[in-house]
What we know:
By secondary structure, this protein is an alpha+beta fold. It has helices spanning 2-11, 61-81, 96-106, 119-124, 169-181, and strands at residues 14-24, 30-33, 38-40, 51-56, 84-89, 111-114, 132-136, 141-148, 151-155, 162-166. It has 5 helices and 10 strands.
Amino acid sequence: MKNIVIFTVFFLYITEISSQNRMTFPHNVILKDKKNKNVTSKIFYNFEKPIIIDYWATYCKPCIQKLDDLKDVYKEWQDRYGLQIIVISIDKKSKRKQALKIIEKHNWPFQFYFDHNKELLKKLSDINLVPLSFILDGKFNVVKTFSGAKFWMLPIDNSEEKRLKTDLRNYEKVLDSLVKKK
């Protein structure tokens, strides 16, 4: 029971890390796509619009919840910000099929890649836990990093029933600030 409480408290905590020295995104890292083909990270170009790069793993329940919640706002954020969400698994190669099944089951509309050796992750951050998100401006500068997850209770379909939902308000604040700068 004590381990469950510690685990729950750990994942209910979110850390925001401002990138005071805006780091330019590394474009030369090789990842695997869903078809197991090599791609370089330079394919993430989004026509000078913001990008969220979200790291996840199959064993991370808060990651799956967060991706479901990002799915709920994705269309709205695409329309408002021109946003692209790129999701990268840090699972080992042996978990690839399991990751693909989860992606299919949830019908997430994002681009998915695999960083089995965490090469891109190592170039972006010293943080090695998921969930982990990077918000990039239109020039591929990392402007904000979010690690961990913060949840809040929200009503489901205007009923009295509630469920945990990822708190994405700080993501939205960063995206709003990026759009206002243009």
